[in-house]
Structure formats: structure tokens, C-alpha cells
């Protein structure tokens, strides 16, 4: 406006710049206010959002608060809480966890491998030992067989041959050689008792219980303190169901050897069974 009151189309440059700055500032304030409201309007877990809390903020920044839905409590689900608690600590790197797991797995595998090697080593030792024993027995049997076939074998050699056959579990040949040894024996009665005991064991292994009992009785008659023969006699009588005689044999064995586990176990078993049946005096 000029002093004469006439309008002109010429603008004041300073006034134009001030108006532009005001508009820019107003737009910036509006954008910031809208962003603030959007952040404040976003509910956090476990908080209550109300319209009354947003009204003073909206009035101060000059933005009208838009009414929203009814305020509600936003709480995390139980599954989410459990999942967050199950997560590893943020300072533990996945690479470290993987390395520890690999180490544990490697240790367990080493233990299993060590146990397997120990079992295989023990089994190999037993097999090698049995092979060596079998080879030694075969060599001894071969030598004894040659002397027996030559017809000049002694009673001791028959006894040794019978013992070898017992260890090889060739009971028929064992019995034949032991019978020849008993017939030809001219030595001590204690050694003869051992021959009768071995002969009784051969008979018992071929289910000839009566012949076994007869041989064991000969052994204990020759050597009354022969604990092994008493045990074998008790076993043979027990197999024949003559429990009274078996008890007497085991008791005699315990008198001679109180720490005899074989007689103790068998005697207790017989008495337990007889007591259950009411047959024990």
C-alpha cells in the first residue's frame, strides 16, 4: 500500500521471506507433532493407553487428537515370555555354543571308543589264551597217543592222557584212559583217589550218575580228607534226588573246609527247598 491508498502489485521482498519461513516452521511443527502422537499412541507391553493422556500433548502442539479405540492392556503372551527366557544370553556367541557342543560330543565318542577297545582287547586276550591252551593240549595228547599206541604207556601216562581228554571235553576217551590208569596204578592211595575222582567226573559228564557216585565213594574211602571228592559226591547224589546223602556229603566237606563256598551254597539251597516242601527233619 502506498500513502495515496492506491494498490500496487509490487511485493515487499522481506515480507515474502518472513511469510515463507513461518509456513515452513508451521509445517515442521505439524510433522513433528504427528510423529510424536504416533509414537505415543503405540502401546507398550503391559501399559494402559488412555485418550486423556494424549489430549494435553495434542493441545500443546496444536494438533487435534483423533479418538481411538477403547484403552486396553497389552501384555505379552506366555509362549513369548517362555521363548524369550529360553533364548541364550546375548553375550554368548553361537559359535562358542557350537564349539562346546562339539567338544562334549567328541569326549563322549572318545569314551565309547575306549570302552569298545578295552572290551575287544579283553576278548582277544581270552581267545588267544584259549588257542594257546588248545594247542598245548593237542601237542600233549599227540605225544601221549603215540606212546599208548606203541603199547608201552605207564599208568601215569594213561592218567595224564585221561586228564587231557577231560580238559578237551572228550569224555569218552577220558573215561577209557582213566579206567586203564586205575587198573594199572601201583602208587600212593592219594594219587589213586585223584584218578577215581577224575573218572567219576567223566562219568557224571556223560550222564552216568550211578557210575559217578561209585567212583566218588572210592575216592573218599581212599582219602577221607579229599574235599573236592566230597563236593562231587554231593553233586552226584543231588542229581539223583538223594538229598539226604547230598546233605551229608556237603556237611562233611564243610567240616574239612569251613570256608568251602561250593558246599555252603549247595547245602543252603537243598535245605531251603526241603524246608519249603516240609521234607526236612
UniProtKB/TrEMBL annotation:
Regions of compositional bias (Basic and acidic residues) in chain numbering: 1-15
Stated name of the protein: Uncharacterized protein
Region span, Disordered: 1-20
Entries under SUPFAM superfamilies matching the protein: TPR-like
Transmembrane portions of the chain: 110-128
Keywords annotated in UniProt: Membrane, Repeat, TPR repeat, Transmembrane, Transmembrane helix
TPR repeats: 193-226, 227-260
PANTHER family tied to this protein: CELLULOSE SYNTHASE OPERON PROTEIN C (PTHR44943), TPR REPEAT-CONTAINING PROTEIN MJ0263 (PTHR44943:SF8)
Superkingdom: Eukaryota
Cited Gene3D superfamilies: Tetratricopeptide repeat domain
InterPro entries, per the entry: TPR-like_helical_dom_sf (IPR011990), TPR_rpt (IPR019734), Ycf3/AcsC/BcsC/TPR_MFPF (IPR051685)
Keyword Transmembrane helix: yes
Entry keyword Transmembrane helix: yes
Amino acid at each position: 500500500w502506498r500513502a495515496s491508498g492506491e494498490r500496487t502489485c509490487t511485493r515487499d521482498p522481506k515480507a515474502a521471506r518472513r511469510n515463507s519461513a513461518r509456513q515452513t516452521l508451521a509445517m515442521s511443527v505439524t510433522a513433528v507433532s504427528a510423529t510424536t502422537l504416533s509414537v505415543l499412541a503405540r502401546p507398550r507391553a503391559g501399559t494402559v493407553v488412555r485418550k486423556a493422556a494424549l489430549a494435553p500433548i495434542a493441545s500443546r502442539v496444536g494438533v487435534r487428537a483423533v479418538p481411538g479405540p477403547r484403552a486396553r492392556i497389552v501384555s505379552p503372551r506366555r509362549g513369548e515370555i517362555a521363548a524369550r527366557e529360553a533364548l541364550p544370553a546375548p553375550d554368548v556367541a553361537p559359535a562358542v555354543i557350537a564349539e562346546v557342543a562339539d567338544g562334549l560330543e567328541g569326549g563322549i565318542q572318545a569314551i565309547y571308543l575306549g570302552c569298545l577297545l578295552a572290551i575287544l582287547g579283553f576278548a582277544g586276550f581270552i581267545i588267544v589264551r584259549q588257542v594257546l591252551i588248545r594247542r598245548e593240549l593237542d601237542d600233549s595228547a599227540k605225544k601221549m597217543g603215540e606212546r599208548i599206541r606203541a603199547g608201552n604207556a605207564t599208568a601215569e601216562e594213561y592218567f595224564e592222557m585221561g586228564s587231557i581228554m577231560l580238559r578237551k571235553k572228550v569224555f569218552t576217551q577220558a573215561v577209557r584212559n582213566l579206567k586203564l590208569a586205575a587198573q594199572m596204578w601201583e602208587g600212593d592211595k592219594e594219587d589213586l583217589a585223584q584218578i577215581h575222582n577224575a573218572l567219576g567226573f567223566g562219568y557224571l559228564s556223560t550222564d552216568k550218575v550211578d557210575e559217578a557216585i561209585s567212583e566218588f565213594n572210592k575216592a573218599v574211602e581212599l582219602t577221607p580228607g579229599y574235599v573236592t571228592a566230597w563236593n562231587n559226591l554231593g553233586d552226584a547224589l543231588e542229581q539223583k534226588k538223594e538229598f539226604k546223602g547230598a546233605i551229608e556229603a556237603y556237611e562233611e566237606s564243610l567240616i574239612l573246609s569251613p570256608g568251602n563256598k561250593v558246599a555252603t551254597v549247595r547245602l543252603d539251597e537243598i535245605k531251603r527247598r526241603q524246608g519249603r516242601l516240609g521234607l526236612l527233619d
